[in-house]
Amino acid sequence: MATNDLMSELQKDSIKLDDDSERKVVKMILKLLEDKNGEVQNLAVKCLGPLVSKVKEYQVETIVDTLCTNMLADKEQLRDISSIGLKTVIGELPPVCVCFPLSDCWCVLSYRLRTLHNTANLSLSSNRQGGLLVNFHPSILSCLLPQLTSPRLAVRKRTIIALGHLVMSCGNLVFVDLIEHLLSELSRNDSMSTTRTYIQCIAAISRQAGHRIGEYLEKIIPLVVKFCNIDDDELREYCIQAFESFVRRCPKEVYPHVGTVINICLKYLTYDPNYNYDDEDEDENAMDADGADEDYQGSDDEYSDDDDMSWKVRRAAAKCLDAVVSTRHEMLPEFYRTVSPALIARFKEREENVKADVFHAYLSLLKQTRPAQISGMSDISPSHRVLLQVPMIVKALHKQMKEKSVKTRQCCFNMLTELVNVLPGALTQHIPVLVPGIIFSLNDKSSSSNLKIDALSCLYVVLCNHQPQVFHPHALVPPVVACVGDPFYKITSEALLVSQQLVKVIRPLDQPERDTFDASPYITDLFTCTIKRLKAADIDQEVKERAISCMGQIICNLGDSLGDDLPGTLHIFLERLKNEITRLTTVKALTLIAGSTLKIDLRPILDEAVPILASFLRKNQRALKLSTLAALDILVKNYSDSVTPAMIDAVLAELPPLISESDMHVSQMVISFLTTLARVHPLSLAKIGGSSILSELISLVRSPLLQGGALSAMLEFFQALVGTGTSSLGYMDLLRMLTGPVYAQSAALTHKQSYYSIAKCVAALTRACPDEGPAVVGQFIQDVKNSRSTDSIRLLALLSLGEVGHTFLNKQKLKTVILDAFSSSSEEVKSAASYALGSIAVGNLPEYLPFVLGEISGQPKRQYLLLHSLKEIISSASVTGLKPYVEGVWTLLLKHCECAEEGTRNVVAECLGKLTLIDPETLLPRLKGYLLSGSSYARSSVVTAVKFTISDHPQTIDPLLKNCIGDFLKTLEDPDLNVRRVALVTFNSAAHNKPSLIRDLLDTVLPHLYNETKVRKELIREVEMGPFKHTVDDGLDIRKAAFECMYTLLDSCLDRLDIFEFLNHVEDGLKDHYDIKMLTFLMLARLSTLCPSAVLQRLDRLVEPLRATCTTKVKANSVKQEFEKQDELKRSAMRAVVALLTIPEAEKSPLMSEFQSQISSNPELAAIFENIQRDSSSANMESMDTS
């Protein structure tokens, strides 16, 4: 009892012992280890764990010394208990603690190993202190190897564990000795028992240090294959487990043997010598055979045999197939031909554990199929192959779904869920067969909670991914309603989610023409079960939220059938709106109801609800603000007659703080709401002229961040606002507000984007008030011509002319004015004039396009600006409008594609690319023809032009481009450096925007890509700059382009890369120039997430360049920029190190742990490391925050 009380006290953090108390406690506990009572000894050992963390270092040494001495004692009981005690002590010490003499400890352990075969504490010691025992590794190995032939199986098992820990930290010589020993012993094959042990040992080494065993697989695998054919079930199991570990830990080295491994697994997946499946197969011909199910269950007991180990072989085969399928994505088509039918045929497996692993292997196959849907790897994509096998899968699952086994049914539901996620709609023909199985589990009284939850989540996914009509013949509502009433909150929550989806199924509002199903029999049941949960206050938060969402869906889809129940339910929503915990979900539900096509009467709650919603706009919860703005927008749109001016004023008062460049999405929602208000409640906007709303909007127009959706919303708002005809908010008033700062000249706008935004707003206003157009265009022309106008005024006037000019043309005068602006001293004014000319020409191609082409030919000095105008014309004009001019434009562009000026060539290339999109059948072959040009400038222009034909959305040119992009990428072999560089840039664009174009070419392109990552000494030259010599590397740009391509390929074509070859070049990049190091650090961090096992195999080679970067010092007399660059390099390298350490077992690498120690001992590096770790953990937390 006293020992037990002492243990309780030691486990408390508050206990503090003085030196004398420590000595007494340690002495007494060590004495208790010799007690005659075994229970007291066990308690004393348990006390050692918390005690070593409470006492001082020298007391720990006393404990270790005493335990070591006891392990040499004559009494077996004392030796064993001391051994367990030492194991406990080592387990409790922190990994960095070296507070006891390991050498003394090892002397005792080695003696015990040689004499008494005890390896329990050594395995833990090797695991936790492996790096500290490095000097003892050879002797540890020599002590452990004889134990592999011990007559006691428990000793062999512990020896294998100890060797597994040893290979993680031992040196290469020790590792080679171990592998050579195992191979020679396996070749001798003295006894079946030791052969089994050696195979287990090799599998354990592969699991713990797969990156080291890879080079020996050529010798190991033939031996393991040979032993698979020996008639010994246990040995077969261990052999197949070894294959599994090779497949997972040595993906590259095992590749040549994958076919052999699959064949062995397929052979033993059906290995069941003691059971006859013939009757089973006959039963399967009937799709509904409940009687057969009962026979099937009875057969389990009839054939179960304690001596039958064949199930272990089948389980190992299923797990190994799972590993193969999970790691070899490139073999998917082959898997669907061979592995998939075999797995489906084994769904009938009689052993439950084996059956679960067969299901899991098939799930892995389906999961691997998901990304392949996008890539379209071959003519028959993997997802299409799944579709062909769906009938087989359904037939196999049909019987299993009414099994008594809960685990089997859960596997079936997981399988169906994954199948529908991979192929939405795939089960349409099979719903009548599958639904009874799902209902069976929902109604089954003996079903566990987890089974019901899995059945409901499966039903939810199936409902979401199929047409509503296929479910109408089935009675799904009663079992789901019963689950909503279940006492377990998780079942209720899942059932409410399914009910919400069922509401959409029984009355699909989005397909009114096909709505022939009579939903009335089900409405009362669905409403009653949901309202009960909606009213309850003392239920789980998740259930509350799901009940609100479900009721929102019921009112949205069935509100016209609820009658007198509707107002009461809406008032419950009002109460939930006032509750901080449920308000966000309620806002979303109200948005759904307000948008219903049934025009639900919300008047009973609007008076109270709108002011509450207005108050939410000042809450510090972004998701709530966004949802509230969406709700207010739909309410104002659909219930304009019920929304009073007072309600609108309450909302308007809350809007000014939300209009800010700091959150463009919220700003966009506010602008959309104001636009809706201007359209349906124009009078309510009379007050915004005097409020701060308009001034905030005008400020936002001047923000350089205003673009995309927010800018489009702003343009719509101004058009709606000027259309209201509100006094003091007319056309000229708004024009003055927008352009005032530019004309005032008091505060020039700092960013060019602001002028573009203002010009677009001016154009939007002018389009809404066409009568004002001519006068405004005239004013802008005067501003451009006026010699006293500032550059800012000219810039705005030209951009505005570009936006509105093609609608209100003042033809001849306008051409002259813009051409004169080409002579401005300001580059920005010239650029605006170029844009204006192109934009105006779009509105009148017959007049302006020949003029622009003539100017390009006749004005060489203005050529660059005029080409920009032409680019604007080609980009913005309609295809039909441009077609008559294509030949003339094409001829002109070709004259300039050999220009020595790179900037001009780039504009020409963009024009050529965009022009090709107009008539790809004719122009793409022409482009291809110019690849044979003798001019390197022409070749580079043509390859760059191809880049501008590629975009991230489907285009008519795509199939044509796919057929000939290989010819354009052959320029990667071009003798000219610049041509090769632009070819890489084009390749990068294709890999990023449309990977399907280049996936099938990677085998031929990658060698050339990798070739460009090498540093070429012939491209490095020295330039004399006064008294200094400066080194210039002409190959840096092309290397940078090559590494950028590699980074892109990681995201888009990972499954087509040989990761180990890829890592070779990443490794070289880690030692390259600053820019390339930064790129390769990013790649390393990405690879750590995408292919951790491959990176782990190369870890030792990757650590050294990282260490070199972190420890490099800049010369004391260097410029400030050099210090900043080195700091940034260190930070990037540290980010890569932090990413590498997220790989399981990375810190077990001796080089990595040594580098970690180096980081910890350097205050500067330690501070950077801690900051990055903190940032990455907080980023992970943010990504988990779904609000």
TrEMBL record:
GO terms for cellular component: nucleus. Its main location: nucleus. Residues 279-306 are annotated as: Disordered. Keywords: Acetylation, Nucleus, Repeat, Ubl conjugation pathway. InterPro entries: ARM-like (IPR011989), ARM-type_fold (IPR016024), CAND1/CAND2 (IPR039852), TATA-bd_TIP120 (IPR013932). It is found in: Nucleus. It comes from the Eukaryota. Residues 997-1159 form the TATA-binding protein interacting (TIP20) domain. GO terms for biological process: SCF complex assembly. SUPFAM superfamilies: ARM repeat (SSF48371). Belongs to the CAND family. PANTHER family: TIP120. This is Cullin associated and neddylation dissociated 1. It comes from Oncorhynchus kisutch. The gene is LOC116361848.
